[in-house]
Specification:
Helix content is 30%, strand content 11%. It has 219 residues and is an alpha/beta fold.
Length: 219
């Protein structure tokens, strides 16, 4: 199985060779103002509510699937797409208290810390619904409309995602995003923190189990 790593979560801010200011404006394919810039990565953030953006990204997927016959795609930084705070918002006071009293029970994405490896304070009210709709549409196209696009079979899709969002692997017809698999990004930093910060025989087993089980039944 050969998967392509596809980055539809952000794009280069390079205005000379990239899409930034492609049409001469500051937005174009991207969100306007500060919302269109990732504050940590320095890259541009797509406006998934624009038809032109949907056409561009879907055509990108279909092109690589047709021309290079990949078996599927690994979608990069899906958590950044799904939340308007891009995973950078700080914890609630209760979550900060839990972090402070369990220093090894912390995982982070771009500076956002969640205690116990669980998605306790991501805030479903902060969902980027346009991004949610795009990802559901992309999975629908790759799974259910592949024959019309000249593809031989449905493609596998993996989401690099760490919030534990419910419905990530639920079919779009049932209200989900439709991914086949969730690729948890918390595991590598978890093992690094355990090996570096815990003495032999004192591993934080509760935190390890929580991280390994951070998925919904059937996903």
């Amino acid at each position: 199985v050969v998967l392509m790593d596809v980055v539809h979560s952000h794009a280069s801010a390079n205005a000379a060779e990239g899409l930034s200011r492609f049409d001469g404006s500051a937005s174009g394919y991207f969100l306007p103002g500060a919302r269109g810039h990732h504050p940590v990565w320095g890259s541009r953030l797509f406006d998934y509510g624009k038809e032109e953006v949907l056409r561009l990204l879907l055509a990108n997927l279909v092109h690589y699937a047709r021309e290079y016959r990949f078996d599927g795609f690994r979608f990069d930084a899906v958590t950044t797409m799904l939340f308007t705070h891009r995973g950078l918002e700080t914890c609630s006071p209760a979550a900060r208290h839990a972090c402070a009293h369990a220093p090894h029970a912390q995982s982070a994405i771009g500076g956002r810390t969640t205690p116990g490896g669980a998605a306790l304070d991501w805030g479903l009210g902060a969902l980027d619904l346009d991004a949610f709709a795009y990802l559901a549409l992309a999975n629908y196209v790759l799974h259910d409309r592949f024959a019309e696009l000249g593809l031989e079979r449905p493609l596998l899709t993996l989401a690099e995602e760490c919030s534990g969002l419910p419905s990530l692997c639920v079919p779009p017809a049932a209200g989900g995003l439709g991914f086949d698999y969730r690729l948890g990004v918390g595991y590598p930093p978890l093992w690094v923190s355990v090996v570096e910060g815990s003495a032999p025989g004192e591993w934080p087993l509760r935190h390890i189990v929580a991280e390994l089980c951070k998925r919904r039944r059937g996903e």
